[in-house]
């Protein structure tokens, strides 16, 4: 099949498609194709060259064995050298041989040989101070540099000055050397090209950002990404992380996800750890007097224009897993609209608020919390826990948000998870005008909705800690329990609708404390208590 064309990209595509048809999930793995006959005149095989920001498609290398079904020891040694060379191409490296690149003075008005584009110009492949008689273009500009033109049988130990190299991308038998600059180029490819779909590993040394910046090209991180205090970073593209990594917003820093996507790496076997917004639980959430775009003592995360988080253990944690004293205080503001909600998708916990004593300044508006067949397992388990978890926070307001669980294969109610789970907290769940205005007719109200969950809203507080909640003009459908309050909860439910087609549901609200309910039909604010208008 592959002999129908000698175009490298078409050959690789044909081979990968054939392998994908034979092996389940083969597309998630990097392929090495060992061919029995002919390689279109290639010297032993070929690989696709990784280039900056080249994300579409899949990569592979192919190698020839001259029609022999048996591999000798020398064959195996040859393949290991050859495959290392071809993997170098996949990681963005070029040949270190070929001298048909002209110097800057020679190429004026001259059409360059296309092969020049595949030759290596990195100056550290050969020693820059080495008096190599064969090096006639030692410059460091584009299309300049020294390219070995010797034979593959040269002896790298014969002389330090003859141009024979043992570089993995050279035409030689040894192929054991990779220069520091080549390593840098490979690291860039691992972060910015298609090869990242097949690569994993975690570096405990974080990547810290300084100064206002925008991440506008797709990138994958193999370590924690930290937005440093005093800085603001905007994400407008796809940013991916390995499972062990986090995106951290330090106190006094700001992260804006402006239409971008922050998620686990493509083909990841499990969820990544998610975004952590650090803060100081003893300080206010007031703005920085020197820079009103930042908060003085808290990290700030903002979602706008449909920015989203996917496939995380905790999509957004207002706190820290492992930093003493950073137990809460960070702020999240999701500025979704009725036409463009903020998706938080396939997370084990969507947003978690750690304890913070003063009134909370977060904004949760038109967020779409969902789980579906793309959900990934993680260190915290593979099933939904809570779309929103609030632990000891005050005055949290949830407006016109959607909570659902469509994950297939669920066998128990607890696997369905909760929409909102509060512990010793005060919260208001309410509708919002579709046009974003302060007032509108009843028909234009967008309610919060809870669908196919174990508990739509679950509130709890120990007897010694009073808590309160209001659930207003919300819709509940096919939940095991719609609203549940236990222990010392002061709860008001008004204008809600409860529907279910389940055969064994709790179709009504369950309450264990003081509770008032107004029927869904009376949606007008005029029929609700006077303080409802003040909450809107």
Write the layout of secondary structure elements.
Blueprint: H1 8-22, E1 31-35, E2 45-47, E3 60-64, H2 73-90, H3 180-192, E4 207-209, E5 213-215, E6 219-221, E7 225-227, E8 232-235, E9 238-241, E10 246-249, E11 254-258, E12 261-264, E13 274-277, E14 300-304, E15 308-310, E16 314-318, E17 331-335, E18 342-345, E19 349-353, E20 363-365, E21 367-370, E22 386-391, E23 396-399, E24 402-404, E25 418-423, E26 426-430, E27 432-433, E28 445-446, E29 449-451, E30 455-461, E31 467-472, E32 475-477, E33 481-487, E34 489-499, E35 515-519, H4 531-535
Parallel strand pairs: 1-3, 4-7, 5-8, 6-9, 7-10, 8-11, 9-12, 10-13, 11-14, 12-15, 13-16, 14-17, 15-18, 16-19, 17-20, 18-21, 19-22, 20-23, 21-24, 22-25, 23-26, 24-29, 25-30, 26-31, 29-32, 30-33, 31-34, 32-34, 34-35
Antiparallel strand pairs: 2-3, 27-28
Characterization of this structure:
It is a single chain. The strands form 4 sheets. This protein has a 20-stranded parallel β-sheet that branches. It has a 10-stranded parallel β-sheet with strand order 4-7-10-13-16-19-22-25-30-33, with no helix packed on it. Strands 1-3-2 form a 3-stranded mixed β-sheet, with helices on both faces. The protein starts with 7 loop residues before the first helix and ends with a helix. It is 10% helix and 29% strand. It is mainly beta. The protein contains 4 helices and 35 strands. Mean pLDDT is 79; it is low at 1-5, 99-118, 138-145 and 505-536.
